[in-house]
Design a protein that fits this description.
Blueprint lengths: L2 E5 L12 H7 L3 E3 L12 H11 L8 E6 L16 E7 L8 H7 L17 H7 L8
Parallel strand pairs: 1-2, 1-3, 3-4
């Protein structure tokens, strides 16, 4: 079976994978789901990749890494810190080689809802439903 590393997006934490983890485990897979660097707001993308790799320390198996949302930025950086068997971009930001995320956003403003800027879905359930979970079952 495989090792999966599930990497949450911004304004979220590892609990967002709570329904998926047991399903993978029932199928015999091992799962690592690190909480990202909430205590390091100025951390670089490389530092995030390093933290993700640290969560898999001790594993001899190259994981399938699943990045959600903004964590897609970190996936291509992971091979500098650990072996990776596959990268899955789940509704994730796909980096363009040679451009920073801000350059990509400026060139393609439709990739992000501008009216979401400044709203915190971790502090307002209505904002979370409107922008993140609009297509999800409310349970």
């Amino acid at each position: 079976m495989s090792l999966f590393c599930l990497v949450h997006g911004s304004t979220q934490n590892a609990s967002g994978w709570a329904r998926l983890v047991p399903e993978l485990q029932k199928r015999g897979h091992r799962v690592v789901s690190p909480d990202l660097l909430a205590d390091e707001p100025e951390a670089s993308a490389s530092r995030y990749a390093q933290a993700i790799a640290e969560a898999m320390r001790g594993s001899t198996e190259a994981p399938v890494v699943v990045g959600h949302s903004v964590s897609g930025i970190f996936l291509p950086l992971l091979p500098a810190y650990c072996a990776v068997s596959r990268m899955v971009f789940l509704a994730a930001f796909v980096p363009e080689i040679g451009k920073s995320p801000m350059e990509q956003l400026e060139a393609n403003p439709e990739m992000f809802w501008r009216d979401w800027i400044g709203k915190d879905p971790t502090k307002n359930d209505a904002v979370a439903v409107q922008y993140l979970f609009h297509d999800c079952d409310p349970t």
